[in-house]
Design goal:
alpha+beta; Beta-Lactamase; Heat Shock Protein 90; seven-stranded mixed beta sheet; six-stranded antiparallel beta sheet
Length: 495
């Protein structure tokens, strides 16, 4: 050792080797994992060089001036899979795939080291000229890069996975084989009962099964929380409808799926679990079911109305021609009502608009003969069909026997809204200028149909006054829709 008994510190093995050959040190301490620190005395140039190289964690070799390998350490034998006798005497260039790396002193290059029947190994190649026993040679050190490359790949995969999870709009959870959560998307963190990473799946997402798959292979109720975690981490399944046992997610429904994750050797390393929010889809399905039921109900009602109208029209018709005319007109009124409901998506229509639509078939280019006046009233959908048929019967009767059967007759239709909370409409239909009405006249089927529709379908009442100057109808019925607007409406129809 130097005379001042101080051990110099060198950054790596290369500086140490250079110091040995320059005579700066006469002993080195080599750290061995199992044997501990060993002090090696330097008796000559070649011996300490070989001892030091053998202790290196990297592969090392010595090549002569002609590029032939004259010495290799044990680590290089491990990296290549060849014994020392299979390497010494070979050309240095034969160790590498393709063109050998350039041996620039104290510069590092990358190359693929050929392995004995096991592909190639990425290595970093460093070289330096040395002199051993008056012989000029080249020290080549080969560092295994596969671990570094693998670490880089893992880090890149980790960054990619995190990027995917950050962008995912659904709840995506990555489980370890024991059921603990290692990664979770932003959406998963939002619906979890607690920060999910590090928890078991059943702790962060307490599930309540809603349905099972059609094959019956999965029934979540049969599993304890621990066994459910293990199952999610090891077994694939798809499309199980679940809910979360929590107040903030009580109205939400999810579709649970899981798929295994495997490594390069096919071994299970966990699973990916997804919770797809299907709340809106469930609501749409429920609404669709409700609409189908409502449509079925409406179709049955329409058929019942048609059957009743046909039956009553037959009884009140003296000839087939009379039946055809009356029945066709009533069906037309029914069709008009349904066209209105379709256009308004079964929301309803204003009373003024309904009057104009129903009385439109009686329009002529002559002067206005039907006056319509009253406040804006929004009729509920359920009132449109019966009221359309009522107005059709009244207009048909006026055209045959009343004010519209003469050129000078006219009809005034007015209405008002009664009540503050439970509102009702009182509509007055007054005919004038038509044939004189006989006192004590009685109505036929049309009058009976009007009474039936107002009382049964609209929960209202009718009153008819056979005034000799003209028939006067008074209809009253509740308005169940809250949409009763202010402001008067006045229009006319030219029948």
């Amino acid at each position: 050792m130097p005379s001042d008994s101080k051990l110099p510190l060198f950054e790596d093995a290369d500086e140490t080797i250079q110091a040995i050959h320059q005579g700066d040190i006469d002993a080195v301490v080599v750290m061995r994992a199992l044997e501990g620190p060993q002090v090696i005395l330097l008796h000559g140039a070649e011996e300490p060089y070989r001892v030091l190289v053998e202790r290196m964690s990297d592969g090392a070799l010595t090549a002569g001036p002609d590029g032939v390998i004259v010495y290799v350490n044990d680590r290089l034998c491990q990296l290549t899979g060849y014994p020392a006798t299979g390497l010494v005497g070979r050309e240095l260039a034969s160790l590498f795939e393709g063109a050998p790396p350039p041996l620039v002193p104290e510069a590092t290059a990358e190359a693929n080291l050929m392995r004995n029947g096991d592909g190639v190994l990425p290595v970093a190649v460093w070289s330096r000229p040395i002199s051993i026993a008056n012989t000029t040679a080249t020290l080549v050190r080969l560092t295994d890069l596969s671990i570094h490359r693998r670490a880089e790949q893992i880090a890149a995969a980790e960054r990619f996975a995190r990027s995917v999870l950050e962008q995912a709009t659904e709840a995506v959870i990555v489980l370890a084989p024991d059921g603990h959560i290692t990664h979770a998307s932003w959406r998963a963190e939002q619906i979890a009962e607690q920060p999910p990473v590090g928890c078991r799946f059943s702790e962060a997402f307490p599930l309540e099964a809603v349905t099972t798959d059609q094959t019956g292979t999965l029934a979540l109720a049969r599993f304890s929380a621990e066994s459910l975690d293990t199952m999610l981490a090891t077994k694939p399944f798809h499309g199980v409808e679940v809910k979360l046992r929590s107040e903030r997610n009580a109205k939400s429904a999810f579709l649970l799926s899981a798929g295994p994750l495997t490594d390069d050797n096919g071994a299970n390393v966990g699973s990916i679990v997804t919770l797809t929010d299907m709340t809106e889809r469930k609501r749409a399905e429920e609404q669709q079911t409700m609409l189908v039921a409502e449509l079925n109900h409406r179709v049955k009602n329409i058929l019942a109305i048609v059957q009743s109208v046909a039956s009553q029209t037959v009884r009140s018709s003296s000839t087939l021609e009379n039946f055809v005319d009356a029945f066709t007109g009533r069906l037309r009124a029914l069709a008009i009502a349904h066209d209105i409901l379709t256009e308004t998506r079964w929301i309803g229509i204003g009373l003024n608009e309904l009057l104009l639509a129903v009385l439109d078939p009686y329009r002529t280019p002559e002067k206005p003969r039907i006056g319509v006046a009253g406040p804006a009233v929004m009729l509920p959908a359920r009132a449109v069909v019966p009221l359309s048929m009522v107005l059709h019967e009244m207009a048909t009767n006026a055209a045959k026997y009343g004010a519209l059967s003469t050129r000078r007759g006219h009809i005034d239709i007015t209405w008002r809204v009664n009540g503050e909370i439970e509102k009702s409409v009182e509509l007055v239909w007054r005919e004038q200028g038509g044939p004189s009405v006989t006192a004590g006249a009685s109505g036929g089927f049309g009058t009976k149909l009007i009474d039936l529709l107002i009382s049964h379908d609209l929960d209202g009442a009718t009153e008819i006054d056979f005034d000799p100057a003209g028939v006067r109808w008074t209809l009253s019925f509740p308005v169940l829709s809250p949409g009763v607007a202010g402001g008067a409406t006045r229009s006319s129809v030219n029948p």
